[in-house]
Structures are given as structure tokens and as C-alpha cells.
């Protein structure tokens, strides 16, 4: 999900009344009715419904998505193949974001979100249909997954911006992480047990089928979200025009997002794969995700509750530094124990990094009436920057892993890619400091 677009010098908690009215206008609400609720940081019914849709989407992906890389690995033990699958996903996601920006800006953004969920269901239908031959079609599967993610997230992020404001954005982000962690506690653990007890064919078929059902439920729930108001015309070249401006915080913020994406692109699939390779057991991977998600649940709850705008800079630095430090045990020994240390450390500290990052970027979008009106273009800009980073990270992974698969080389690669969080904080720190003033 993860948006962030404000002008320098604007404090998110001190927006003028004209700016605040723009938030409510975009959300289709009555300012007098909802302003008090948001000053107190509460989430309204539309925000809660959006959380439910997000949780269902995340639960279905947690149930099966954790094991897609393992599924491909078992078909063909090839790091590079999984890297190419991931690369196809991120490239397609970036293109989909850019193209779908016009849809969510000028047409029905809720249909865009629903079709994104439906295409996710299609992805698992294809995996079920192809079975053991899936690895032959990894590029096409990556494209389908990229389309589903692009459609869902571009719509979700726009609606997220519209149903939140600076007073409750940290709480919403913390709730997203908390509920996502809750799904992560149960879903992968159940999946691992089913695969081990039923066998590969029946087990994977069952968990992919359950994911289909959850995605369909998510589509149904989404119809309870109000149709969002549309206004304006989509500007195709906005990301380039925006970054060409002489004085804009978006140059630094975009670089921060690129470095954030570098880590996400590789760690998103590599850690689960390393856990499976170390244990040769889907049940162990399920247990790993259960334990780390339980810690993450508490961490996201705390981050959403206690990280206020004035604490974002310090919080993001501590989180960024610690998620790098916990990679060091890999140099001692790559095992389930060191992977668990990494997983627990990430679960504990990553919310300190990600919650301020996400909230600050979305606050930047809403810093002025003009930027709020161009929220779709800014969200596309954000996602393009993230996916540039993801693509760069995965390309680096493919190049290195094609040259050597030695444990030391892999550990150095993970440390280099993991250190991108510090660069992300470096380019964000001025924007985070603006929020304190």
C-alpha cells in the first residue's frame, strides 16, 4: 500500500479549513458531520469497510501467496526463475498503475478495485489449472499477478486517501498492519499443515481454492463501499512533469520510495523461500509466518497508536537501522534459527519504518487543495517510484544469483539490498522533520 505527497512547510495536523474541506469533498462526506470524529483520530464506517476488504485480500494472499514461490521452487529449483517471475510481476504492476490511473481518476474506481480482486482469483485459477507445469508459464503468471496487484492497489490507495486524513492516517495504517498480521498468523500456518497432511497436489489445490473463495467474498463486501466521487482529467505525463519542477519535495520522496522498493522487491519472496530451503517443510514455513506475524500484530498496533507526526523521523530511523542490523546473523549461519531471528526482528521494527513512511507520503499528497485534487496522479507517481526500486532490486538479485549461489555471496547481497531502508530514511528525513515544525 502503501502514499505520501505534501508541500514542504505544511504541517499535516494544521491544515486550513479550506484544505480540510477538500478532504471531505473527495470522500463524499459532510464536513460538519465528520470533522470532530477525525480530529479525535477515529475511523468511520467507510474506512472500516475498506479495512475489511484489504484484510480479505491480504488473507487470501497470505493463505496461498506465501507458498507460490515454494510451489515454483519445487517444480524447478531455480532462484533465477523465481526472480524473473517477480520481475514480470513488478514491471506489469508499474504499467498497470500508470494506465489504470485514468480509470480511477475519471471513472468508477470501485470497479477497478473489484476487478483487481477478481484478477487475483484468476491468477490462482491459472495456477490450479496449470499444476506442475506452472513454471513453464512463469512470465505469464507474473503478468497476471502484476495486473491484479496494480488494479487493486491503485484503487485502494486512492480510496484510502479519501477516507482518511492526517489525524487518523497513522491509526488506519497501524490497523492495516495489525489486521494483516492477524491474517498472517492463521492463514499460512493452516496452509502449511494442509499441504503436509494432504500432500503436494491435494494440499496446494485446496489452499488455492480457498483463496478463490476469499477473493470472491472480498468482491461482494466491496459493494458496500460507497461509489466515490470523480473529478478532473487524468494527466498522463504528470510523474515526469512533477519531478522536473525545480523546488519540489517529490524528488527526495521519490528517491526514498525507490530505495524502499529495492528491499520489498527481493525480501518479499526470498525470506519465505530461504525458510523452506532450510527446512524442506511447508509446515515449518507456516510456523515461521505464524510466529513472526504474531509479533508484527502487536508492533503494528503499537505503531498505529503511539507514532505521532512529531515522532515519525526518529521512529523511521530506528526502524530502518534495526531491519538492517538483523541481517548480520546470516553471516554466522543461514539456518531456521537465524531466519527466525531475522523474522522476529523485522516484525518488531519494520512497522516503525513503514508506518511513518506511508503516512508522511499520503500527508504530502493532501498538503494543499491542488495536490489533493491530483491525488490519483501522485499515487501513480508513488507506485512508479516503488516499482522502479523493486525492479532494480530484483534485477540485481538475478544478476548476482546467476553469477554465484555461494552462501557468502547471497548474504552480502541480502545485506546490500536490506540496507536500502537507511537510504530511504535519508531522503525522507527532511520531509519528516517538516511535519514536526
Average pLDDT reading? 85
Please summarize the sheet with the most strands.
none
Radius of gyration: 21 Å
Structural class comes to mainly alpha
- Given as residue ranges, the uncertain stretches (5+ residues, pLDDT < 50) are 1-39
Question: What is the CATH superfamily?
Answer: MFS general substrate transporter like domains
Beta-strand fraction estimate: under 5%
Q: Tell me the CATH topology.
A: Growth Hormone, Chain: A
- Extended strand count: 0
Structural domain tally:
1
What CATH architecture would you give?
Up-down Bundle
CATH class: Mainly Alpha
Distance between the termini: 27 Å
Number of helices: 17
H/E topology pattern: HHHHHHHHHHHHHHHHH
Helix content: over 70%
Shape: globular
Describe the model:
The protein has 437 residues and is an all-alpha fold. Helices cover 79% and strands 0% of the residues. The chain has one domain (45-229, 241-434): Growth Hormone, Chain: A. It has 17 helices and no strands. Helix 4 packs antiparallel against helix 15 (375-403) and helix 15 packs antiparallel against helix 16 (407-418). It is globular and about 55 Å long.
Topology:
Blueprint: H1 17-27, H2 31-39, H3 45-75, H4 79-106, H5 109-130, H6 138-163, H7 169-198, H8 200-222, H9 238-244, H10 250-279, H11 282-306, H12 312-325, H13 336-365, H14 369-373, H15 375-403, H16 407-418, H17 420-434
Helix pairs in contact: 1-6, 3-6, 3-7, 3-8, 3-10, 4-6, 4-15, 5-6, 5-8, 6-15, 7-8, 7-11, 7-13, 10-11, 10-13, 10-15, 10-17, 11-13, 12-13, 12-17, 13-17, 15-16
In a nutshell, what does this entry contain?
The chain is mostly helical.
Amino acid at each position: 500500500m502503501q502514499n505520501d505527497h505534501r508541500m514542504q512547510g505544511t504541517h499535516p495536523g494544521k491544515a486550513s479549513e479550506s484544505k480540510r474541506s477538500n478532504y471531505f469533498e473527495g470522500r463524499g462526506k459532510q464536513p460538519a458531520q465528520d470533522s470532530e470524529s477525525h480530529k479525535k483520530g477515529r475511523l468511520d464506517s467507510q474506512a472500516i469497510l475498506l479495512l475489511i476488504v484489504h484484510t480479505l485480500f491480504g488473507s487470501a494472499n497470505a493463505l496461498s501467496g506465501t507458498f507460490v514461490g515454494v510451489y515454483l521452487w519445487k517444480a524447478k529449483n531455480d532462484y533465477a526463475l523465481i526472480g524473473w517471475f517477480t520481475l514480470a510481476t513488478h514491471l506489469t504492476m508499474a504499467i498497470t498503475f500508470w494506465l489504470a490511473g485514468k480509470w480511477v481518476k475519471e471513472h468508477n474506481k470501485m470497479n477497478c478495485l473489484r476487478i483487481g480482486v477478481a484478477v487475483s482469483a484468476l491468477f490462482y485459477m491459472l495456477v490450479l489449472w496449470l499444476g506442475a507445469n506452472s513454471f513453464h508459464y512463469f512470465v505469464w503468471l507474473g503478468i497476471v499477478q502484476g495486473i491484479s496487484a496494480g488494479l487493486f492497489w491503485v484503487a485502494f490507495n486512492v480510496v484510502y486517501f479519501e477516507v482518511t486524513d492526517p489525524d487518523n492516517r497513522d491509526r488506519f495504517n497501524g490497523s492495516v498492519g495489525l489486521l494483516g498480521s492477524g491474517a498472517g498468523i492463521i492463514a499460512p500456518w493452516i496452509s502449511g499443515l494442509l499441504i503436509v497432511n494432504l500432500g503436494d497436489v491435494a494440499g496446494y489445490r485446496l489452499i488455492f481454492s480457498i483463496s478463490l473463495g476469499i477473493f470472491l467474498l472480498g468482491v461482494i463486501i466491496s459493494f458496500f463501499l460507497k461509489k466515490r466521487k470523480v473529478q478532473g482529467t487524468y494527466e498522463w505525463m504528470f510523474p515526469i512533469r512533477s519531478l522536473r519542477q525545480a523546488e519540489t519535495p517529490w524528488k527526495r520522496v521519490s528517491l526514498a520510495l525507490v530505495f524502499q522498493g529495492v528491499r520489498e522487491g527481493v525480501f518479499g519472496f526470498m525470506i519465505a523461500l530461504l525458510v523452506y530451503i532450510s527446512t524442506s517443510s511447508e509446515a515449518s514455513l507456516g510456523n515461521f509466518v505464524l510466529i513472526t506475524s504474531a509479533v508484527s500484530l502487536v508492533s503494528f498496533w503499537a505503531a498505529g497508536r503511539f507514532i505521532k507526526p512529531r515522532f515519525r523521523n526518529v521512529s523511521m530511523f530506528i526502524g530502518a537501522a534495526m531491519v538492517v542490523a538483523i541481517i548480520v546473523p546470516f553471516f554466522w549461519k543461514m539456518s531456521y534459527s537465524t531466519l527466525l531471528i531475522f523474522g522476529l526482528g523485522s516484525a518488531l521494527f519494520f512497522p516503525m519504518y513503514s508506518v511513518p513512511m506511508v503516512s508522511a507520503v499520503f500527508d504530502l499528497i493532501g498538503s494543499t487543495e491542488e495536490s489533493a485534487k491530483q491525488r490519483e496522479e501522485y499515487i501513480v507517481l508513488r507506485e512508479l517510484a516503488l516499482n522502479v526500486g523493486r525492479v532494480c532490486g530484483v534485477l540485481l538479485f538475478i544478476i548476482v544469483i546467476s553469477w554465484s549461489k555461494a552462501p557468502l555471496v547471497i548474504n552480502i547481497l541480502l545485506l546490500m539490498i536490506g540496507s536500502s531502508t537507511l537510504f530511504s530514511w535519508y531522503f525522507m528525513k527532511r520531509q519528516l522533520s517538516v511535519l514536526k515544525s
